[in-house]
Design a protein that fits this description.
- With 369 residues, the protein is mainly β.
- Helix content is 5%, strand content 52%.
- The chain is built from one helix and 28 strands.
- Strands 3-2-1-28 form a four-stranded antiparallel beta sheet.
- Strand 4 and strand 5 form a beta hairpin.
- The termini are far apart.
- About 1% of the residues have low confidence.
Length: 369
């Protein structure tokens, strides 16, 4: 009898451990001014079958349109995109019950923040309409201090409607963590800043900048796992510029595109990311296309086109690949859903699973690793 009891306990324990291993935590940031939303939503996502379960939400917070999770997984930081009243929020995060509790908020020091990153020391924000970058020191309790540094970009470019002034659209650590890259849609420049995390005032120091094609509008950038190549997606013309990266220097090696050769509609490229195995690159195009392009990464970091498929919604603002590389989730700002695709790990091609998360205006997807 005792042997049977211990066997049952062991089997149940094994099943529980297996279930936990199949789960990944998914956080979704939303816009809250167009439909009913609490702001940030937390889900358990099953990496084996693509099923999901809502676990928690934030208390109502304004437009947490981009999120980042702290390296120790204990805190979540979000922008609050709200024009001149924009702010940045710090939350504690309980991994056991997925509960989010607001710690504090600080002014973003720039209108309409659109991207946010963090490490053990600092939180760094890109302010789109403000055309600047703001750096916040972290306090010991995970909250953020008042802005420690604000860097204002200057200039404009060829598109008089969209590039009348600087528009910082993304900040990103380089893989070696020695630099921070900033894509500026308004000036057609990609800026490189030396990163001094322990400095009191000069946390970011100008190192270099590169100019992309006039009127193209650099939006997001991603690096491959081996740190040798960077891929910048330009919003206004849908181009992807491939750079060789070394010690804070970007050198162009190729230009690809997310736009089909016969496409005649509005271009509005959005998000770009590389699969966990480093073999494939994905990039979305909103506008009138609402599709995602798949590329194989070949020798010397170059891109080879694989396919282009509908995202099955409108406004594919953001997407995320689960940590196992089995599923790709696309957030649609205008059709209020997150469509779940499966990934063929051999070809990189996408297949609709028929599953989707219905949610008010989702615009940012983050898997907690």
């Amino acid at each position: 009898m005792n042997k049977q009891y211990f066997l049952i306990v062991f089997v149940l324990f094994f099943i529980q451990i297996q279930a936990q291993q199949n789960k990944a935590t998914l956080l979704i940031g939303t816009y809250t001014n167009g439909c009913e939303s609490n702001g940030i939503y937390v889900y358990d996502f099953n990496v084996q079958d693509g099923n999901f379960l809502q676990k928690a939400t934030s208390q109502k917070v304004i437009n947490p349109s981009y999120l980042t999770v702290s390296p120790d997984h204990k805190f979540v930081y979000s922008v609050n995109e709200n024009g001149e009243k924009s702010s940045v929020s710090a939350f504690s995060f309980n991994s056991d019950n997925s509960k989010l509790e607001l710690l504090n908020q600080q002014s973003s020091k720039g209108a309409d923040p659109c991207f946010i990153i963090n490490d053990a020391k600092n939180v760094i924000v890109a302010n789109y309409s403000g055309g600047n970058i703001t750096v916040f020191n972290k306090k010991s309790d995970g909250s953020i201090a008042e802005a420690a540094q604000v860097i204002q970009h200057k200039g404009k470019s060829a598109n008089t409607e969209r590039q009348e002034s600087p528009h910082v659209h993304m900040v990103q650590y380089t893989p070696d963590n020695r630099y921070v890259i900033a894509n500026d849609l308004g000036t057609d420049k990609i800026f490189v800043y030396r990163y001094n995390p322990n400095s009191k005032t000069n946390i970011l120091e100008p190192k270099d900048s590169v100019i992309v094609k006039a009127g193209s509008g650099p939006r997001h950038i991603t690096f491959n796992s081996k740190s040798k190549f960077a891929y910048s997606l330009q919003e206004l013309d849908g181009s992807i510029t491939v750079f060789h990266y070394k010690k804070g220097k970007l050198q162009q090696v190729q230009e690809a595109t997310v736009v089909a050769p016969d496409f005649k509609g509005q271009i509005s490229a959005a998000a770009i990311s590389i699969s966990p195995n480093g073999k494939f690159l994905y990039a979305t195009n909103r506008g009138t296309a609402n599709d995602i392009s798949v590329f194989k990464i070949v020798k010397k970091g170059r891109l080879e086109f694989v396919e282009r498929v509908s995202t099955l919604g409108k406004g594919p603002r953001s997407f995320a690949i689960d940590p196992t590389g089995k599923f790709l989730l696309i957030a649609h700002q205008y059709t209020n859903d997150v469509v779940i695709f499966s990934i063929d790990k051999q070809s990189g091609k996408l297949t609709n699973t028929g599953k989707k998360i219905e949610l008010c205006s989702p615009v940012c997807l983050v898997f907690k690793k």
